[in-house]
Task: inverse folding
């Protein structure tokens, strides 16, 4: 790619936006972003979490930054600023040749065969967990999905027999590590989420280290065992430290993203009961399904995609320029933070007609609005860091909803709108309260 000479590049203009705009973006992301674009153009500057960020809009700039053909942008310095102390050496925080080396090994844990075995492990746990919802008449679905995802992670990812107390301890450590990334106080001051996150990281390192030797020896169908035996084509495997770092990162990468995807699906299916019935009819007709059957649930696939379009689980993807470069014709000095926002881009009317409407058939073969641009639909990112767990997530979420739809019908009062909060990853402040009704065959 040719980079224009610095003199030919425009400087990003307009004020550096601060906390009032950050708050508006948090509670009214779509409306306020549209306002900022109209006022300041395709690239604007925002102070957030202690750094100045160039916020970009549109699929062309997303492609330039994420596909990163001229290797001008790096992940490590960007993500480390937010989550480094808790998830350091996770693959998303590695760059260039080192990243490629780790990714080649890691992808052996995400082959079709590996996914098939994860499905076999998780399927009975999904059914058991959902049966336990029977007593819940007015649950907050986001909380139930969170608990279910953690439960499945212990079985599918960790695969170690733990007492209930140990499970609780691992879960709590893990939640603390995730929460720490968005702590407002970013120092090790006792009592703050940051300090709790550091303690949790140390606990998780000890936990995985203590089970490593047995896992290497005994193997298993879980992700931890897969990482122990994963090797690249040239015979390289992971060191003990690599396995611990990747396990901690993978748990984090999978957890909140999958939970918010399911909450978004549940919310949209509750506010569009005709779609809930359509998805249920597909699942009831399919009956008990295996791994291939889960992948064949097409209505559910469209519902999942449309729910991720309307609420992208990772709303912003940060990068740091490793040298002077440009984006969209604007000057980007070395060291600048730049973000691409799948969340905002998914509402661009030039890519998505009537963008606020829930319309899963956008993804039907005869419409395929996601093909309006290579980067039109980017919930899993793009380029070399594109989500390695994309197919895992698709399988897990569809497997859960398939069983959920066959067992329960859920509804919300007329006119209900979920209060989405975009402080870090999106979450519904009210947990999505619903009325749940058991369906008897
Ligand atoms: C619906 C659920 C999920 C969504 C929306 C999602 C989204 C993303 C996005 C946007 C990225 C790119 C980050 C960047 O470019 O900076 C990413 C990376 C990643 N995701 Fe996911 N993710 C999901 C589920 C999962 C699951 C289930 C796993 C693991 C089982 C996983 C593992 C990873 C890993 C390891 C990376 C880093 C890849 C790399 O840097 O090479 N994700 N994910």
Result:
């Amino acid at each position: 790619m040719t980079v224009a000479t610095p003199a030919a590049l425009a400087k990003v203009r307009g004020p550096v936006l601060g906390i009032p705009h950050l708050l508006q973006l948090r509670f009214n992301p779509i409306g306020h972003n549209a306002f900022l674009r109209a006022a300041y153009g395709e690239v604007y500057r925002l102070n957030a979490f202690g750094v100045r960020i160039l916020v970009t809009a549109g699929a062309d700039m997303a492609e330039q930054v994420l596909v990163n053909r001229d290797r001008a942008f790096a992940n490590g310095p960007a993500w480390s600023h937010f989550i480094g102390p808790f998830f350091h050496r996770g693959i998303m925080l590695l760059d260039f040749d080192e990243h490629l080396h780790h990714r080649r090994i890691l992808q052996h844990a995400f082959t079709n065969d590996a996914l098939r075995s994860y499905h076999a492990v998780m399927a009975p746990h999904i059914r058991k967990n959902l049966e336990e919802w029977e007593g819940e008449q007015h649950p907050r679905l986001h909380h139930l999905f969170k608990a279910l995802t953690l439960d499945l992670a212990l079985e599918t990812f960790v695969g170690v027999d733990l007492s209930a107390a140990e499970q609780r301890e691992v879960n709590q450590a893990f939640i603390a590590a995730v929460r720490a990334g968005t702590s407002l106080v970013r120092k090790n001051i006792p009592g703050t989420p940051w300090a709790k996150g550091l303690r949790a990281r140390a606990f998780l390192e000890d936990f995985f280290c203590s089970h490593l030797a047995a896992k290497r020896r005994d193997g298993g169908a879980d992700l931890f065992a897969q990482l122990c035996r994963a090797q690249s084509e040239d015979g390289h495997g992971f060191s003990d430290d690599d396995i611990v770092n990747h396990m901690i990162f993978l748990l984090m990468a999978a957890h909140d993203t999958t939970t918010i995807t399911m909450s978004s699906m549940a919310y949209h299916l509750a506010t569009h009961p005709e779609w809930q019935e359509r998805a249920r009819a597909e699942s009831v007709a399919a009956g008990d399904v295996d791994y291939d059957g889960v992948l064949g649930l097409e209505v559910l696939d469209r519902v999942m995609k449309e729910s991720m379009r309307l609420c992208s689980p990772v709303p912003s993807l940060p990068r740091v320029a490793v040298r002077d470069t440009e984006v969209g014709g604007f000057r980007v000095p070395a060291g600048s933070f730049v973000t691409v926002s799948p969340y905002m881009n998914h509402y661009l009317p030039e890519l998505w007609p009537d963008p606020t409407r829930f319309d899963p058939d956008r993804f039907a073969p005869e419409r395929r609005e996601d093909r309006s641009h290579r980067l039109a639909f980017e919930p899993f990112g793009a380029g070399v860091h594109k989500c390695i767990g994309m197919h895992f997530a698709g399988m897990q979420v569809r497997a859960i909803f398939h069983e959920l739809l066959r067992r329960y019908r859920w509804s919300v009062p007329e006119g209900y709108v979920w209060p989405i909060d975009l402080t870090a990853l999106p979450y519904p402040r009210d947990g999505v309260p619903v009325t749940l009704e058991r369906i008897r065959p």
In short: The mean pLDDT is 93. The first strand starts at residue 16 and ends at 17.
